[in-house]
Structures are given as structure tokens and as C-alpha cells.
Fold this protein.
Amino acid sequence: MGKIAIKYGIGTAVVLIVYFLLLKVVGLHEFPVLSVANGIIFGVGILIAMQKYKASGKSFFYQDGFQLGLVTGAIATILFSIFMALYIFQIDTEFAHAILDSWSLNYNKGGLIIIVTLIMMGFSTTLVLTLAFMQLLKDSWNATKHPEK
């Protein structure tokens, strides 16, 4: 399970980074509303990881799938947050000010608040999507109907 979580966590982070860089190239990276696609990217990464684990033939217990989803999303969140911290503090120091100006905030506009927000959004998205996907992938405990005699 660990290998699957690492593989798809890193893959999800790479797709998130590529998406951000594509937005940067087009000039749309300063519009926070476009981060909605991050949730879709997280969802695809977590769902594929869960499906691969379930298809591996091992018993698929709820707690194992739940743990897999959380670890996959956590890895993606941490890696993407590290990239964004490097981007905000080293590459484009004006990016944080541009984002925070669009939020109409009147206090110190440091980039740390964006990193904290990214981490909170990443972990909350991971939790919600993992709960939702486990409802789709878990085995039913409902008794099967017996044929009528």
C-alpha cells in the first residue's frame, strides 16, 4: 500500500505543479478561482490510487483504503506546498502580494498565509474526497437476496 501511496502522491503533486506552471505561462496564475481544478486533480490521483490498490487482489478493507487516500493526498499536499513555498519566496516574490490584493486584506501581506491556506485546503480536500471515494469502493455489507422458491 505504501508504494501505491507514494507513487500516486508524487504523481498528483507533479500534475498540480505542471498545472500551476501552465497557468503561469498563460498569465492566469494570479486568479485563485482556477484552483478549483486542484480539487479535480487531487480527486483523480486519490481515486486511481484506491482503484489500483483494490485491483491488486489484496483484501480491500475500509481502513486500508481510507489510509491509502489520506497518505496519497498528504504526500501530494506536502510536495505541492514545498514547491509553492519555493516559488513564492524565491522565484516570484510579488506573487503573494498579487494574490492577497485580490482577497482585499488589510494586514501584512506575507506569503506564509498562502502556504498555510494551501496546506489546509489540500488536507481538507483529501479528507472529503477520501470519504466520498470509499463510499464508492467499499464492499457492501448488505445481505444478498435469496431467490424465491
